[in-house]
Amino acid sequence: MVPEPARWPERETSITDTFTITTLDSLDEAAREAAAVILEAAFNDPERYGRARILSQLQPAGLPFYRRFFIALRAGEVVGVGGVKAADWASDSHILYLSAVAEHSRGQGVARALISARIAWVMETFGSGRLLVSTARSRRFARLGFRLMGKREAGGRRLMLLEF
Fold first, then answer.
1. Which among 53, 33, 55 has a CA at the least distance from the CA of 45?
2. DSSP E strand boundaries for 75-146
3. Which UniProt keywords apply (predicted)?
């Protein structure tokens, strides 16, 4: 049985001194296109992360196999994007995925803010479960309470888990 979310806000906003984190509005084609450009540039793998796949992933999906994206905006420009989705293979499991920051905005806390916003949204919405991420930045996620899973690296990335 799929748990009913505790809260399912349409838009959630977090403001810092220089940028705003909000959910990607499915009707905002310009923001969706800008997010796709950032993801394409960051992943630079047309076979695996081509434009059509990225654009389809940027569309929200409802329960039980939800998918939601958050964007970072600075002066109306999309400077970062990050997704979270239900793991369709495990109950009460969620995945942080397709995260990237525009090159000119890196090192300014955008990635940290996007990660924090997604973690907070999952915890507030579902109450309990587990959150997974595949990352090359294991220290960043360890500081947030994630722990390493297994001993193997795949392409310089490690699987990490946060139980909540």
1. 53
2. 77-86, 93-101, 130-135
3. Transferase
Which amino acid is residue 10, in one-letter code? E
> pLDDT tens digits, residue range 25-72?
999 999 999 999 999 999 999 888 999 999 999 999 999 999 999 999
Determine contact, residues 69/24, Cβ cutoff 8 Å.
yes
| 13-128 CATH | 3.40.630.30
The end-to-end CA distance of the chain, in Å, is 19
pLDDT in tens, 113-136: 999 999 999 999 999 999 999 999
Six token digits for residue 64: 């039980």
* Dihedral sign for Cα atoms in the order 75, 12, 86, 128: positive
What is the helix, strand, coil percentage profile of the chain, to 5?
Answer: 30, 35, 35
